[in-house]
Amino acid sequence: MVFTGFDEGAMAYDLQRAHSADIWFLKFRAYFWGSCVALCGFLVGNIMGVFGVNIMGEIFNQLGNLWHHIGG
Q1: Cα–Cα 20 to 30 A to 14, which of 30, 51, 58, 70?
Q2: Where are the alpha helices (DSSP H) in the chain?
Q3: Domain spans in the chain, listed from the N-terminal domain onward
């Protein structure tokens, strides 16, 4: 139906396409940043492993020491 120069069917189709494009962009952005974070974590973990750096072990040791000092 044409109402004041706008075709409701075409407008609904355009809104559906815009929504699909928004969803695609959000998914692409999430996959992109997720992949970047995974790759950086993998590279940093391997580089630190080569040099014998164990940050997570140190963090858990410090938390364990703090827990024992608190009296847990």
Answers
A1: 30
A2: 8-50, 55-70
A3: 2-70
State how far the Cα of 3 lies from the Cα of 31, in Å rounded to an integer.
41
Contacts of the segment 34-38: beta carbons below 8 A, 24+ positions apart = none
Q: Hey, what are 66's tokens?
A: 């703090």
Task: State both tokens at 22.
Answer: 């928004």
* Nearest residue to 25 (alpha-carbon basis) of 33, 36, 15: 33
- Mean pLDDT, the chain, rounded, equals 78
Q: CA-CA distance, 43 to 40, in Å (whole number)?
A: 5
**21-37 burial: b if 16+ Cβ within 10 Å, else e:** eeeeeeeeeeeeeeeee
54 compared with 3, residue with greater pLDDT:
54
Tokens found for residue 1: 């139906």
